[in-house]
Amino acid sequence: MRSTNLASAFVAVAAFFVPNATFAFVAPTSSSRLNTVSQNGFLSPKFVGVRSTPTLAMKVSLPFGSGLGANGAKSRLGMSDAAVPEGEKKGFWKKIKSVVPPANERKKLLPLALMFFCILFNYTILRDTKDVLMVTAPKSGAEVIPFIKTYVNLPAAIGFTAIYSKLCDKLEQKNVFYACTVPFLIFFSVFAMAIYPNIGTLHPHAFVDAIASHLPAGFSAPLSIVRNWSFAIFYVMAEMWGSVVASLLFWGFANEVTTIDEAKKY
C-alpha cells in the first residue's frame, strides 16, 4: 500500500513537470524487487532479485528520452516548437496587403493625395506672407487687418459664392474645380513675377498722400489699403485660397471622383 502511494505521488509530480510523458504500470510478481536501469535514455524500471513484499513497478517514457541518461545528465530540449507557425506568417502578410489599396484605387488616391499636399503647402506659405506684406507696407500697420477683413474680404467672399453657384449650375464639378483654381494660380504667378517687383511704380503713394491731407486721421487705415492695393488683393486671395480651394473645391472634387465604398474605406 505504501509503495502504491509513493508511485502515485511520483506520477503526479512527473505529470506536472512533464505533461507529455507516457506512464505504464506493470504488476510485478511477489518475488521481485525494484531496480531502475537506463536504456536508450528512458527510465526503464526492472525487477530483479527476490522480495516477498508485493511492489508496484512503473515505466516512464519521456518525450525527450535521448537527453536524460543514468548519470543524471540534463536533457537537451529543442526550441523548434517556439517558431512562428506558417499560418500566422501568411496572416500577417495578408493584413499588410489589405492595407495597401489595389491598383485601380491607387490611380485616384495618389493624385488626390499629391493635390491636397500642394494645396496645403501653398496655403501655409500664403497665410504667413499675407500678414507680413500688409503689416510692413509703407504707412501701414496691424490696424489695417480688421478693415481688410471687413470691407474687402467679406464682399469678395459673397461675390465668389454667387459666381460659384452659377458655375455649379452650368459646369460639372471637376470643371468647376479647374475654373475656380486657375484664376488663383494666375494671380499669384503674376504677383510674384510682375506686380511685386514694380510696387514702387504701381502703388499711388503721392495720390494717397494728397487725399490724406484733406481727411481726418481716422481714415489712415482705409487709405493704407488704397495705397498698398496689390498687397490688399494678395491678402484677400490668400484668405480665400484656404477657405475656398482647400476646403470647398478640393473636397467637392474628391467627392466627385470617388465612390461611396472608397470614401468609407479611406
Structure description:
The protein contains ten helices and four strands. The longest helix is centred in the middle third of the chain and has 33 residues, at 103-135. The model is unreliable at 23-82 (pLDDT under 50). Helix 3 (103-135) runs antiparallel to helix 9. It has 266 residues and is mainly alpha-helical. The strands form two sheets. It has a two-stranded antiparallel sheet. Strands 2-3 form a two-stranded antiparallel ribbon. A hairpin with a 2-residue loop joins strand 2 and strand 3 (42-48). 63% of the residues lie in helices and 9% in strands. It has helices at 2-17, 86-99, 103-135, 144-170, 173-195, 199-202, 205-212, 220-227, 229-257, 260-265; strands at 22-26, 33-39, 42-48, 57-61.
Q: Which term fits the overall shape?
A: elongated
Q: Biggest sheet, in brief?
A: 2 strands, antiparallel
Helix/strand class:
mainly alpha
The secondary-structure element order is HEEEEHHHHHHHHH
Stretches with pLDDT under 50, minimum 5 residues: 23-82
Distance N terminus to C terminus?
73 Å
- Strand runs, count: 4
- Please state roughly what percent of the residues sit in beta strands, choosing from under 5%, 5-15%, 15-25%, 25-35%, 35-45% or over 45%: 5-15%
List the keywords.
single chain; 266 residues; mainly alpha; two-stranded antiparallel ribbon; two-stranded antiparallel sheet; 10 helices; 4 strands; 63% helix; elongated
Short description:
This protein has 266 residues and is mainly alpha-helical.
